[in-house]
Design brief:
Blueprint: E1 11-14, E2 27-29, H1 36-43, E3 53-56, E4 59-60, E5 69-75, E6 82-90, E7 96-105, E8 110-119, E9 128-139, E10 147-151, E11 163-167, E12 172-176, E13 191-196, E14 199-206, E15 211-218, E16 221-228, E17 232-233, E18 240-242, E19 245-252, H2 256-270, E20 274-275, E21 278-279, E22 284-286, H3 304-316, E23 323-326, H4 363-371, E24 375-380, E25 384-386, H5 390-394, E26 399-401, E27 407-410, H6 415-431, E28 436-439, H7 446-456, H8 461-480, E29 486-488, H9 498-501, E30 504-505, H10 517-527, E31 535-538, H11 543-549, E32 553-556, H12 568-584, E33 588-591, E34 604-611, E35 616-623, E36 631-634, E37 644-649, E38 655-659, H13 660-665, E39 667-670, E40 676-682
Parallel strand pairs: 2-9, 22-23, 22-32, 23-24, 24-28, 28-29, 29-30, 31-32
Antiparallel strand pairs: 1-12, 3-4, 3-9, 5-6, 6-7, 7-8, 8-18, 8-19, 9-16, 9-17, 10-11, 10-13, 12-15, 13-14, 14-19, 15-16, 20-21, 25-27, 26-27, 33-34, 34-35, 35-40, 36-39, 37-38, 37-40
Helix pairs in contact: 3-4, 6-8, 10-11
């Protein structure tokens, strides 16, 4: 097994399957990639085991589900190249029903499904546990030879999204799951590229809680089980639950990065929120200076006058962003330098504008932004409710509390509470003219779910209901405000999965040391292999720094009124360059520095943005510290061997020509000093 030594990314155990866990019987030959329709017919057919398993009343589904009633119905799809089916497995009599909503993508060899369990009986259902939404044996022509590529989760460190590479060995179980009830928190990332013998499949899990993905060799085939880790429950009469979304996208080729780039295109085509049928343009954002000076923090001392003045100042300097970003601290109770011990964090749950600082609400700020041709995005954290806040004092019936914490959880799984929040936040957005909605979540939630489950006696039910409620809340906002973008932040990038990418963009992908460029380079190098839409903050206009932090989106956290330390012309130049570079992040991405530990200041690092649509691209290269090599050889990817490319240095404007083959064989990058960056454009 290969992995980064500093990452404890998974439980690696001697393989021993419990008798209570089903053994998959559906076997898929990876070399025989089929069209979406053929996969639907092969995976879901009468008398055949489906690609999921569960234990029901102590028995494995593999032992009985072929005896259940089976039906398969094609559902009309309003999207081109998309197939939809509703497949039912029903217990004889009035018992359990498993509905499988299947989607096939004909422009990609991709298939995905979500399971819904419903009790059609008059009494409580039998116990349901060990639910694997996917349980498949992947076979390869190279029997037993499998490599899994995935990434670390986010923990506010340089190692966020760092590559994880596993050469699968016999008699070993590789068990991945995130921490704290957030889908990309610390220990795992719900996207996997499984490769073997020139074939691959991207396995993705859509679940914004504690998902799992377990891998093990069984008779030379790779068993892949995924779903929600904690399920041991029964259903009341008429009650339904859903499971995590499972997605499989197959690819062929000798280079696994071809599979990664195909997956990026799949994400953009089918798992990116659309406005008027088109993909969101990832925004260039700007804040109101740096936040506030101590003892204030974030925007706890911002006022209406100051915010409007800063919008006008951006206009005066020719620095108007596409989105003005108002972060934490605008709500009542958080504001002012004389609020001893009060700050943005410990007043969350008071979702009412601080009228002392904003006597007219946030509408004057949104109107000022709109008058400059920009939008306004505002920060919320509705799931976490701090002791003493407005929601804590007035809606205790909708909170999950713990005696050991000052935080409580607003129960999105309670329909009455969910309905209230939808209308409350929706009305607030409308009344204040807010365009983009930013949702944060700075709390471990799994312990609260466990507390509620103990009262209910059904393990996993609280998590299921909360995650269902989260999707319902976001879907409500997107339906009510069809031009809205949701920014998904959970302590920075800790809720990234296939369901959240379908509804939102992580404009703040990590809470790592704000503005530290070397860590930011790592995050770009790794995260962009999976997700083409993401962003972070830019704090200076120095080329090394802004090049380190740029991605498909950016947030300018410039102190534009700082005397002697800020240059307007430099900032204007950076903004114009971002508008050019942004589109290159939306085609092919190649990390060029390998899968090893790239976090040290003694490293050089490079990555490439390649645009096959017009045979052009950019190369980013960085030398961090004086202990890093002054030269590096970089082999570009994805070029046409026989074409002649002109390469231009973005700083000196010097240019040279090389064939595609020569560029892919390698060119030498020379750094004049440290730290230093090189940005090359080719066409």
């Amino acid at each position: 097994m290969k992995c980064l030594s500093f990452i404890r990314f998974a439980l690696v155990l001697v393989l021993s399957f419990s008798t209570a866990i089903c053994r998959a019987q559906l076997s898929v030959q990876m070399s025989k990639v089929s069209a979406a329709q053929k996969m639907v017919d092969a995976y879901f057919a009468k008398g055949k085991l489906p690609p999921f398993t569960f234990v029901y009343g102590g028995d494995c589904s593999s032992d009985f589900i072929r005896k259940w009633n089976f039906s398969k119905k094609k559902v009309e799809s309003d999207l081109p190249n998309v197939l939809k089916y509703e497949i039912l497995y029903s217990e004889p009599g009035d018992g359990l029903e498993v509905r499988c909503d299947v989607t096939g993508y004909q422009d990609f060899e991709a298939l995905e499904w979500v399971l819904h369990f419903t009790n059609r009986g008059d009494g409580n259902s039998k116990n349901i546990k060990n639910l694997a939404a996917s349980d498949i044996l992947f076979a390869s022509k190279n029997k037993g030879d499998f490599t899994i590529y995935t990434a670390h989760g986010s923990n506010g460190s340089r190692y966020d999204f760092a590559p994880v590479v596993v050469d699968v060995e016999s008699d070993t179980l590789y068990a991945f799951e995130p921490k704290n009830g957030r889908s990309s928190d610390t220990s795992a990332f719900p996207f996997f590229n499984i490769t073997s013998g020139g074939n691959g499949v991207m396995l993705s899990v859509g679940w914004t809680g504690t998902w799992f993905a377990d891998f093990a060799l069984v008779d030379g085939r790779l068993q892949c089980r995924s779903g929600m880790r904690n399920t041991d429950l029964f259903l009341y009469p008429g009650e339904s639950i859903r499971t995590p979304l499972v997605s499989l996208m197959y690819w062929k080729g000798d280079d696994r990065l071809d599979g990664q780039n195909r997956f990026r295109r799949f994400i953009l085509a089918h798992h990116t929120h659309k406005i008027n049928g088109k993909n969101i343009v990832p925004p260039m954002c700007g804040g109101f200076e740096w936040g506030d000076p101590a003892p204030c923090n974030e925007y706890t001392c911002l006022t209406e006058e100051m915010a409007v003045a800063m919008v006008k100042r951006h206009k005066q300097f020719g620095l108007v962003p596409e989105v003005f970003w108002l972060d934490a601290g605008w709500y009542e109770g958080a504001g002012g330098p004389n609020f001893e011990g009060r700050n943005w964090y410990n007043t969350v749950g008071s979702w009412r504008v601080d009228r002392e600082r904003f006597p007219n609400g946030l509408k004057p700020i949104s109107e000022a932004a709109h008058g400059m041709g920009a939008k306004l995005m505002v920060w919320f954290e509705p799931e976490r409710v701090y002791k003493g806040s407005y929601f804590y004092n007035n809606y205790p019936q909708w909170l999950i509390k713990s005696e050991s914490s000052n935080n409580a959880i607003f129960d999105l799984g309670n329909k009455e509470a969910n309905d209230f929040l939808c209308k409350y936040i929706g009305d607030f957005i409308e009344e204040n003219g807010i365009d983009y909605y930013r949702q944060d979540f700075n709390c471990a939630i799994d312990g609260f779910w466990s507390l509620k489950d103990k009262l209910d006696g059904r393990k996993g039910m609280s998590e299921i209901r909360h995650i269902e409620g989260l999707y319902r809340f976001w879907d409500y906002l997107l339906a009510r405000f069809p031009n809205m973008v949701i920014d998904n932040c959970a302590s920075g990038g800790r809720r990234l999965d296939l369901e959240t990418t379908s509804r939102s963009i992580p404009l703040w992908r990590t809470d790592y040391n704000y503005g530290e460029p070397n860590g930011y380079q790592n995050h770009t190098h790794s995260l962009n292999m999976f997700l083409p839409l993401n962003g972070t903050g830019t704090y200076t206009t120095k080329p090394y720094n802004w090049r380190s932090s740029i991605s498909s989106s950016t947030g300018h956290n410039w102190a534009i009124t700082a005397h002697g330390t800020f240059n307007i012309k430099d900032a204007q130049s950076v903004m114009e360059k971002f508008k050019v570079l942004r589109n290159y992040f939306l085609e092919d991405f190649y990390p060029l520095s390998g899968d090893g530990d790239l976090t040290g200041d003694d490293k050089c690092l490079a990555y490439q943005l390649n645009r096959p649509s017009d045979n052009s691209g950019y190369l980013f290269a960085f030398r961090r510290g004086k202990d890093a090599a002054a030269k590096m050889v970089v082999k570009l990817r994805g070029l046409v061997e026989e074409k002649i490319y002109t390469v231009v240095d973005d700083d000196s404007k010097a240019e040279f020509t090389r064939s595609g083959k020569e560029l892919m064989d390698g060119i030498e990058i020379v750094f004049d000093n440290a730290p230093a960056s090189v940005l090359l454009f080719y066409k």
